[in-house]
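Model it.
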Amino acid sequence: MTHAHGSRIQSYIGDPISETPAVDRGQLQEIFKDIQADLRFDHELNGCLNCGICTATCPAAHYYDFSPREIVQLLWTENLEGIYDAMQEKIWACAQCYTCAARCPFENSPGGLIMIMRETAIKHGMKSAQDVLRPFSRVMLKLISTGNQLAPDMINPQHFADWGPNISKVDAPLKLLRQAIPMPTLNTTTTAWEVNLKTSVELYTIWEMTGVLKQLETIDENLFDVISDIMEEKREEWDEFVTEQKDD
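Modeled.
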């Protein structure tokens, strides 16, 4: 008696009912190859019983069309079409709480795998990544240019209109409330701490050497150009400062 030998790898079947043009097979393979090549991948994916414990304990699964089990199954079976589809929306629902990793009997980490998928989506300049990261462009600009993320007086309807209708409810006497905060550096942008020039240049260099800026260029070229101009000026200022110190 012979037994059929199956494979966990899903065969390429395409999508016979979708009106959306099929994504090039080579592109799908390249995306999965980048996910699989990540050093964390083999540590985060060890197999799958399809038990659903991860989804049952996932906070995001209660509110969104999202299932950690689905993500693990797609990667475990190397379902390239399904992986690409999940990267268009579903992976962005994860809150990265890692409850799934703490519960999985196989010691998988769906949250860790989703982090890899998100980074791959950024690398490939997917529209989903651009849409998700766009509201954070100001935060990134302020972080790289001043060393701070936000100051409390920036939180107002005028500055953050793209945060949705709830931002219009920010009408409390914020100035008065912030004066009650013990740390004076949290009151306004004018009193927020200032990062020195050397630290700012070092921060930019880290972003540059680790490939963060290259990814940013893929997602938001205009923001990349602005940050590059700012940091070119700061590097020149730092070089001038170093030269002056040597001359003295």
